[in-house]
Specification:
two-stranded antiparallel sheet, 8 helices, 188 residues, Glutathione S-transferase Yfyf (Class Pi), Chain A, domain 2, mainly alpha, 11% strand
Length: 188
């Protein structure tokens, strides 16, 4: 993201920094809660949700190295892996986060009810789970499966997936496990 003009221009390349900047300057909605900023600032429970949302985003953004290592992003494939202990611990942590956010919400809910930055940041995690979990025999909780389906039903995520199926590059060092199925332009 490039912000400013001329000599007062800066490139913001980090996704968390972009989210913070967008929240501060580019929208009347609080991206952490999905509510108007006036509602967020005046209500203690909304400020608590905002802080928790920022915390889980920061954890996801800087962590989950087991998933990142064992389950590289591959929207086009279904692949079988042998998940490491670190990967399984990350999945357990993600399921704990999802449970904390989704307990007592409707079955098609986003993490904080409304779509927020947390859902955007966890969408790549959901796509990784979609690629590897079932083929690898990893069992997710029903709550996690439902949340994954909610994210996969999001029209912006569907557009992302559709665009990915047109991608023709394969980065061999980023491939993992036994590829069982490929869809899109590279399907044989």
């Amino acid at each position: 993201m490039v912000y400013g003009q001329g000599d007062e221009k800066v490139t913001i390349w980090d996704t968390l920094a972009i989210a913070i900047h967008a929240n501060d300057y580019l929208t009347d909605l609080d991206i952490w809660t999905g509510l108007s900023k006036s509602n967020t600032e005046s209500d203690t429970s909304n400020r608590i949700n905002s802080a928790y949302c920022q915390s889980i985003i920061a954890e996801m953004h800087s962590g989950l190295m087991g998933i990142r290592s064992d389950m590289p992003m591959n929207i086009r494939a279904t692949a079988k892996i042998r998940p490491s202990a670190a990967c399984l611990a990350d999945i357990a942590r993600i399921e704990h986060i999802f449970a904390e956010c989704l307990t007592n919400r409707s079955s098609d809910s986003y993490l904080f009810g409304h779509f927020t930055a947390a859902d955007a940041f966890f969408a790549p995690v959901v796509l990784r789970l979609q690629t590897y979990v079932k083929a690898s025999g990893i069992i997710l909780t029903p709550l996690t499966e439902q949340y994954c389906q909610t994210i996969l039903n999001n029209p912006h995520v569907q557009a992302w997936q559709k665009a990915a199926l047109k991608e023709t590059r394969i980065i061999e060092e980023d491939e993992a496990g036994e590829i069982l199925f490929v869809e899109g332009i590279l399907a044989k």
